[in-house]
Design brief:
The protein is α+β, with helices and mostly antiparallel strands and 493 residues long. The chain is built from 9 helices and 28 strands. It has 2 domains: 152 residues, Immunoglobulin-like (Sandwich); 268 residues, Rossmann fold (3-Layer(aba) Sandwich). The termini are far apart.
Length: 493
Amino acid sequence: MAGVATLAACGQSTGSSGEPIAEPQVEQTPGGKPTKSWFIKASKRAPASLIEAYTPNTSVLPGELIPIHVSTSANDWSIEVFRIGDYDGLGGAKMQTLGPFPGQEHKDQTSVDEQTKAVRADWPSAVAVDSAGWEPGFYLLHAIAKGKKTEIPVVVRTADVADRVAVIASVTTWQAYNLWGGRSLYNNVGGGFDGRSYAVNTNRPFDEKGRGKIYAFEIPVVRVAEESGVPLAYLTNIDLSLAPEQLAGAVGAVSTGHDEYWSVPYRNALATLRDNGGNLAFLGANTGYWRVRVSDSGPDAGQIVTCYKSAALDPVKNSRQTTARWRDEPKPEPENTVVGQLYDAFPASGALEIRDPDFFLFDGTGVSAGTKFPGLLGPETDRYYDLSTTPRPMQIPALSELLGKGKPTWSTITYYTNDAGAGVVSTGTMAWCRSLPRPRTIAGIPAETTEFAKRVTINIFQQSAAGPMGKEHPAVDDSRDVNLPKTNTTGAA
């Protein structure tokens, strides 16, 4: 049974900010109890008027405290801790129950940065959760009031990634889309794109847009990664923005389904791993599209993500740190120089089509040339372009025609290798993660599509863990046989 915690006695266990530490009173079930209750059903989701919660710390090392900031109209509230994984196919395990704690309301305590318009919830820390004994991984903490729940995602990161495949959570993307407080990097409520903020702050809860990225593009990858049985490491792209050397020694790194916002240090970490023979896998699309800055010093280190989306608006001029698209001036470094392909189309939909059934990452799928998998392309897609910035040798094992903005275009799976032996694979579609780990008939993803994507994803993890993929499976440059236009045909932004 999960343990129950109460507030520590005054003057005893407290966090660095003076908040009480939630301490379980009884021993926890080793490994947790497999359950589906990590997923919050609509009937169990708490309205913002009842309870909202966040932690500014997107990751912690095992044993570090996780400060929880809560605003609730209820008299008391509690916490449930879940670790995401395979867990008998249920997707998670309940690790702890903590509380109850006295409730307080702070919803009006917010501030907006004058220059960047970034919204911050200035709520005091209510309690600190001790992560001592927690296995590295992806966790959801549920803050619960009157039986209704809201989630707080946190990564317990791996201190030593040597000889492991690193799963990298795309925290900058979650925050970019998070509209809590009325502004995101996309718009403000009622004001559209011109009313957007130029930075976002981790000191705030998630709204539907922000948390939707977690459920669609992070959790499915984690579940299949853990099922693959390989030694894993867990990091976030904010961790690598602050300390890119944390990735050194990994045998591979896997970027999840919507890793859109890259800082310079994060990009450097990926490129350095590849150049030293580490494998890379990109399981989505629109990857590495926007350049961002992550605050790296002072009390806000790792908590502010800045992206003006305009070299003209950004006060940092003519620099590799200027927050425009990576493919644009100043200092352009298109995403295909690392990923292998470029962002192409939105909205997009279609079936993925196999070009080379003998491609090693297709082992065990039973595919033939021309086999199609419905629902596996979209809602955003990338593709190969025959450009000077495209790495060589470049192999294209899947080539699929689809519609993007109603116009014909293509999506590709790409694979390239280098002299150090690294193998870099990119699926070229966001729907790859959406198809994992189970069919979604409501989204047009049948069982055969899920079986294919899941088998290939497991192959990616297992082949990455085995060592430099390019040494055993050097890419065969067949990309020049593909007659595709050199320009973007869909007008994707």
